[in-house]
Amino acid sequence: MESESPHQLNVIFVPYPTPGHMIPMVDTARLFAKHGVSVTIITTHANALTFQEAIDSDFSYGYPIRTQVIQFPAAQVGLPEGVENLKDGTSLEMLGKISSGIIMLQDQIELLFHDLKPDCIVTDMTSPWTVESAEKLGIPRLYFYSSSCFSNCASYFIRKYRPHEKLDSGTQKFTIPGLPESIEMSPLQLAEWIRAKSAYSSYFEAMFESESRSYGTIYNSFHELENDYEKLSNSAIGTKSWSIGPVAAWANRNDERKANGGTIRDLEKEPEWLNWLDSKKNESVLYVSFGSLTRLPQAQIVEIAHGLENSGHDFMWVIRKKDEDGDGESFLLEFEQRMKESKMGYIIWNWAPQLLILDHPAIGGVVTHCGWNSVLESLNAGLPMITWPMFAEQFYNERLLADVLKIGVPVGVKENKFWTSMGEEEIVRREEILKAVVLLMGSGQESKEIRRRARELGDAAKRTIEEGGHSYNNLIQLIDELKSLKISSALAKSKLDD
Ligand code: UDP
What we know:
Blueprint: E1 10-14, H1 19-34, E2 38-44, H2 45-49, H3 52-60, E3 65-70, H4 74-77, H5 92-103, H6 106-116, E4 120-124, H7 130-137, E5 141-145, H8 149-161, E6 174-175, E7 184-185, H9 192-195, H10 199-212, E8 216-219, H11 223-237, E9 240-243, H12 247-251, H13 272-278, E10 285-289, H14 298-311, E11 314-319, H15 329-342, E12 345-349, H16 354-358, E13 363-368, H17 372-380, E14 385-387, H18 394-404, E15 408-410, H19 430-441, H20 445-464, H21 470-497
Parallel strand pairs: 1-2, 1-4, 2-3, 4-5, 5-8, 8-9, 10-11, 10-13, 11-12, 13-14, 14-15
Antiparallel strand pairs: 6-7
Helix pairs in contact: 8-11, 8-18, 14-15, 14-19
This protein binds uridine-5'-diphosphate.
Residues 19-20, 23, 261-262, 289, 291-293, 318, 351-352, 354-355, 371-374, 377 line the site of uridine-5'-diphosphate (UDP).
């Protein structure tokens, strides 16, 4: 990567192999390249295939971007070739093997840092060790935070003041300390490693702590959405930050294919889902998706099916199956057949072209697990949401949508659990689903207000990435600052050499 020109800025991005982390980081890398930075993305072969088409296209337009492929140790961890991303894990055992394989990539990545001699590295919370790599190379490390500023603040203050420890029950409410607004949560909605100290707690603490030891933070968010919380995160955590989102909308602007959305392309020309949506009235269809990782228990799938059918509203539902789903097969196949006949519902198995679907005028609302990318993508399309958080920081994002932005209707989830440990007790019942759908998709005053606010935020999301918009300016400022750093460190080095 040694410079094409002495002033060319060279930046390495290392995306974590799960769509929620990888898609926004690759989009950010593409934005850097579109603004003249020479970019290298380090990833494994199967992961590269999911976005390489977009990189090749950018490169063919003259943008200095490339992928550096490293070897995933599939055989060493006992996985078949090609399983290199957490979204491919259909059981706890498989997820464990994929995670082990990812950890083993560290040496190859570190070697590449050394060989390619970048001016800056961009990595996310999952690679806290890159702080030391950057220190050794004497370059800045930027921490890419792949969720909301609000969630970063909420998590910071809850970890610091531990308000949940003062309560007797997991369902009692506490007010999140340190925030400018009074926002309530209950202990069970926190990630398990925060609720009770365990071996995992120090592992996660190290990830968060690496932010304050970094040069600064990149947020996939924007000024008009949560500027107060970005400022709060800066003052609390003590780092600089740049909000440059929504990066998916920006990087894929004018691209009708919307990049690859984290999967190898398998869409025909006139896909069936598009014909189905084309046959529907504007804003009449609810899009239901729980992100790239979650695979729901059969009992929950049954409740969702009934809740959606009973609501009377049309829907498009993305279902990801578990390994042991054999016995649920017939229920879902019958349901799918019934929905096909009534034309009320459309099921997408495993993976949906989400960006394209959300932009379709027939979509009128979204059921989301509150993964930050899905939230931003819905918001960019001006869509209101039913919030159904599952795990990690998704419960904070629910509070942002419901209490701060007032564009989300909570379905009422009580406990933070990854799908591998979800049981019968956590099932959301069909009546609650129906209630939320009828409220969001109905024509009542509350629904109209929620829609109006969502539309306004969608407009702001589009303006902020235009030339002169906040996110646009932030990206330019960040790149300029990195260039200045490069020049001053080169000057300092030449003085030492003299
Ligand atoms: N995604 C998609 N199709 C799917 C599921 C997910 O394109 O069927 C994309 C989605 O658009 C988003 C990312 O995968 O960009 C998921 O990230 P998010 O933060 O929403 O949730 P996570 O999967 O990390 O829980």
